[in-house]
Amino acid sequence: MIIKKPSDIRSSEITSETHFKQRRDIVKTMGLTALTLGSAGTSAQLFAKSNDDDLKSQLTEYKDITTYNNYYEFGTGKSDPAKNAHTLKTSPWDVVVDGECEKPGKYSLEDILKAMDIEDRIYRFRCVEGWSMVIPWNGFQLGDLLKRFAPTSKAKYVYFETLLDPENMPGQRTSVLEWPYVEGLRMDEAMNPLTLFATGIYGKDIPKQNGAPLRLVVPWKYGFKSIKSIARISFLEKQPTSSWQKANKHEYGFFSNVNPKVDHPRWTQKRERRIGEFRKRKTLMFNGYEEQVASLYKGMDLKKHY
Ligand SMILES: Nc1nc2c(c(=O)[nH]1)N[C@H]1C(S)=C(S)[C@@H](COP(=O)(O)O)O[C@H]1N2
Ligand SMILES: [Mo]
């Protein structure tokens, strides 16, 4: 199996091993108090111990993260995905890999997860609509996965597709967006160590409404770049067009970096409402990840490349 780590010699119990790994990480950080995991309020406080920056005190409650969603395949209201996403079929799950790479193919999620190390990452999350959260993800670095497919020198962009399954995704039977939902990153953005494929939240499997079983997280970009329930990865020479660019190219560009200095045509991006808080916060350049990612855009006019 191409993407396996050489050290991975066992081939059985793949899924439970993944769960165990996620579980073990969280148990390690919380000790015996892990037994109380399950109440969102306390899990927020407990999980916080595993991370050492100031975000740990700002974690959004599990309940808010999993009931206030955008997932148009399951409705356009914020509470629709939590109600409707139970029809999403997440197993078996395959990811098709194609385009400019030496190891295209159809990879099972089990094989992918077996090869990856699951980590905890607390990230700010900023939706283009003006709300934000702080989310404790579990996942792996996207770059660690992509390099196993051996992209060729022609691979300048990575393109992603959400599962297309109108039978089980009622929104795909409407024309609110073009289906499947698609997104893209420039290769250097995809390879940046901040960029994750998420498989969990608060140490539990990622809920369907949040994009099970595999969902992109790019913390310095607006939330809509975080495409959910990914079923295809393509390496491309040319910049792809994302779903929101197709929907309205004047309002949504390819880069979609969080930028308080460039307003959305219909509203300001200077402030945000953190879910669970009353007073608005100032939105930070690159959502607070300027130090790690500003160099990716050196020399680019970010007003033009929004
Ligand atoms: N397939 C798919 N992915 C999607 C969306 C969607 O409608 N369909 N919505 C996007 C938007 S606009 C946001 S803000 C985030 C929301 O993620 P969350 O519900 O986990 O907070 O998912 C993004 N990924
Ligand atoms: Mo969004």
From TrEMBL:
Instruction: Quote the cofactor binding remark.
Output: Binds 1 Mo-molybdopterin (Mo-MPT) cofactor per subunit.
Q: What class of enzyme is it?
A: oxidoreductase
Does the record's keyword annotation contain Oxidoreductase? yes
Q: What is its EC number?
A: 1.8.5.-
Signal in keyword set: yes
- Entry GO MF terms: metal ion binding; molybdopterin cofactor binding; oxidoreductase activity, acting on a sulfur group of donors, quinone or similar compound as acceptor
Where do the annotations place Mo-molybdopterin binding?
N69, Y72, E73, C127, T162, N210, R215, S226, I227, K228
Task: Give the record's keywords alphabetically.
Answer: Metal-binding, Molybdenum, Oxidoreductase, Signal
Q: Which reaction does it catalyse?
A: L-methionyl-[protein] + a quinone + H2O = L-methionyl-(R)-S-oxide-[protein] + a quinol; L-methionyl-[protein] + a quinone + H2O = L-methionyl-(S)-S-oxide-[protein] + a quinol
Names of required cofactors? Mo-molybdopterin
Which GO terms of type biological process are on file? protein repair
Q: Where is the Oxidoreductase molybdopterin-binding domain?
A: 89-244
Q: Which family does it belong to?
A: Belongs to the MsrP family.
Q: Subunit composition?
A: Heterodimer of a catalytic subunit (MsrP) and a heme-binding subunit (MsrQ).
Q: What does this protein do?
A: Part of the MsrPQ system that repairs oxidized periplasmic proteins containing methionine sulfoxide residues (Met-O), using respiratory chain electrons. Thus protects these proteins from oxidative-stress damage caused by reactive species of oxygen and chlorine generated by the host defense mechanisms. MsrPQ is essential for the maintenance of envelope integrity under bleach stress, rescuing a wide series of structurally unrelated periplasmic proteins from methionine oxidation.
Q: What is this protein called?
A: Protein-methionine-sulfoxide reductase catalytic subunit MsrP
